[in-house]
Amino acid sequence: MTAISTSCASSNERRRHEEHRSGARESGERLTLEDALALYEDNDLLFLADCARRAKEKKSGRSVYYTVNRHINLTNICSSNCPLCAFQVEAGDARGFVMEPGDIERVLEQAKKTPNLSEIHIVSALHPDKPFSYYRAVVRQVKAALPHVDVKAFTPVEIVNFAKMTGKSIREVLSLLKEDGLDSLPGGGAEILSDRVRAIICPKKATTDEWIETMKAAHSLGIRTNASIMYGHVETIEERLQHLITIREIQDETGGFQAFMLFPFHPAHTKLGEEYQLQRVGSWEDMKMMALSRLILDNIDHVKAFWIMLTMPVAQLALGFGADDLDGTIGEEKIIHAAGARTKTGITRTQLEKIIREAGYEPVERDTFYQPIGGSEVRA
């Protein structure tokens, strides 16, 4: 290629990127996969930040949300043995644990002392022996102890597992859990919605179609959910961005997603990380994905910067890249820390509010469904 043709190619490339950049700025114009790929490759982080911040403020003004919540991880004994996971162990492993009713009761007694507690978040491994009745009893126990608290429990991966162990449909399982007191579903287990990727990172757990079916069934029953992505492992950039388009298409159909969460893959202590010699992606990549998620997911109101995954300094920075939620106080978290996360396992309301104000936003304490509580006001 001659110097002139190289220059022309560069000029055409710049023109193409400017067209996509203009599209990103235009109100109401939806980004296509081609647009998203061009913006990703352009690598202009400050441009993405500007666009994403505008999109965030159009959705939620100067408000940034958080909640007072408590995580409960019921067991780490799992039959899936996913290469991506550092949390799970096989049955018989000395590191294995299962929370029985007495263990849960002790957590709930502690939770009752937490001012403004609004959510109990329950996720777990796929225990090979615990029956569906065990999980139903947990939901009833939590709801009986804390009737004013929203019970957010079980990813689609767990719901699919319950359906398979009982022979019931996904919809039947969700209906029974709703009767027991389930209020909403977390958005985990999506990873990347590509069966090529899932065959490598989590071959024994819910397929792409099963994850989508579960979310659509939940939404049809009036059960609101989150959605998520786990990036930075064996997926291509196109698969990563197509995942966002797929989430947007589901939301177009159901309207049931209330927030989107981004999980960078933590490779430490995982078979996947060891086999593929993976390293945690950097904060530049985190911010690109945060901004592109806000821009692509124009029909989902909230994007979370999950501080447990990102670290608090990076999560605070994400508030300038389209995020409008830092999740919550957590209380105790085990799954991500098993993969080497070095963040604290909990944080106070005061600390969260300070971090939000430092970023120039107003903190709003919320419940699971983004209703302000504790005297908080949404700021336009």
Can you put this structure into words, describing what you see?
- The chain is α/β, with parallel strands linked by helices and 380 residues long.
- Helix content is 47%, strand content 13%.
- It has a domain at 44-68 and 154-175 and 183-365: Alpha-Beta Barrel (TIM Barrel), CATH 3.20.20.
- The protein has 16 helices and ten strands.
- The chain is globular and about 55 Å long.
Task: Give the SSE layout.
Blueprint: H1 3-25, H2 33-42, H3 45-60, E1 63-67, E2 69-73, H4 101-111, E3 119-123, H5 132-145, E4 150-153, H6 156-166, H7 170-180, E5 184-185, H8 195-201, H9 208-220, E6 224-231, H10 237-254, E7 257-264, H11 271-276, H12 283-296, E8 302-304, H13 307-310, H14 312-318, E9 325-328, H15 335-338, H16 349-358, E10 362-365
Describe the structure in brief:
The protein has 380 residues and is an alpha/beta fold.
Total number of beta strands: 10
Look at the helices and sheets and give the structural class. Answer: alpha/beta
Within the largest sheet, what's the order of strands?
5-6-7-8
The stretches of 5 or more residues where confidence is low (pLDDT under 50) are 1-15, 332-344
Individual helix count = 16
CATH level 4 superfamily of the domain at 44-68 and 154-175 and 183-365:
Aldolase class I
Strand content: 5-15%
What's the CATH architecture name of the domain at 44-68 and 154-175 and 183-365? Alpha-Beta Barrel
Percent of residues in helices comes to 40-55%
Shape call: globular
Largest sheet: 4 strands, parallel
Q: Could you state the order of secondary-structure elements as H and E?
A: HHHEEHEHEHHEHHEHEHHEHHEHHE
CATH classification class of the domain at 44-68 and 154-175 and 183-365: Alpha Beta
Task: Report how far apart the termini are.
Answer: 53 Å
Please compute the radius of gyration using only Cα atoms: 21 Å
Q: What is the CATH topology classification name of the domain at 44-68 and 154-175 and 183-365?
A: TIM Barrel
